[in-house]
Design a protein that fits this description.
- This protein is mainly alpha-helical.
- It is built from seven helices and two strands; from the N terminus they run H-H-H-E-E-H-H-H-H.
- Strand 1 and strand 2 form a beta hairpin.
- The radius of gyration is 18 Å and the shape is elongated.
- The protein starts with a helix and ends with a helix.
Length: 145
């Protein structure tokens, strides 16, 4: 299983905001910290706002921050909301044209593996991704002062 860049960036934005606390930050600051394109992050941030994960404060001194405490942001739920296609192989999707689907065991095995993957992610929250014992290191690596 490989998550998309969109989900990866969604997680990175949330990690950054969780590390930053209540203080407002900008998309540009996040982009600079991860050395990724601001344009890539704009869509991600917009969707995270629509999904209720972050809030956007407009105006001269505006910015972004988490809408929920990190302990309330479940990683498995986030991945389900950000991944558009969880079909690991063709036969798991609606456009299946594989001839052997009726007798093949692969679909069931991969469906079980996917459920295990998601069940593991369900055990963690954003707070687990930004543990207090590594907080100062994370701030330094993200260049947050």
């Amino acid at each position: 299983m490989r998550i998309t860049r969109y989900t990866d960036y969604s997680l990175r934005v949330l990690i950054y905001l969780a590390s930053h606390g209540e203080e407002l930050t900008t998309i540009q600051q996040i982009a600079d910290s991860y050395d990724i394109s601001k344009n890539h992050l704009m869509k991600v941030v917009h969707q995270l706002n629509l999904k209720g994960y972050i809030e956007s404060v407009r105006g001269k001194n505006g910015g972004l921050r988490l809408r929920l405490p990190p302990e309330e942001i479940n990683i498995g739920v986030l991945v389900r909301k950000t991944e558009q296609d969880m079909d690991l192989v063709e036969c798991m999707g609606s456009a299946n044209e594989c001839r052997i689907t009726p007798v093949c065991g692969l679909k069931g095995i991969l469906a079980k593996a996917l459920q295990s993957f998601l069940a593991t992610l369900d055990e963690y929250t954003l707070a687990d991704l930004v543990p207090e014992k590594h907080h100062s290191q994370l701030l330094r690596l993200l260049q947050i002062s």
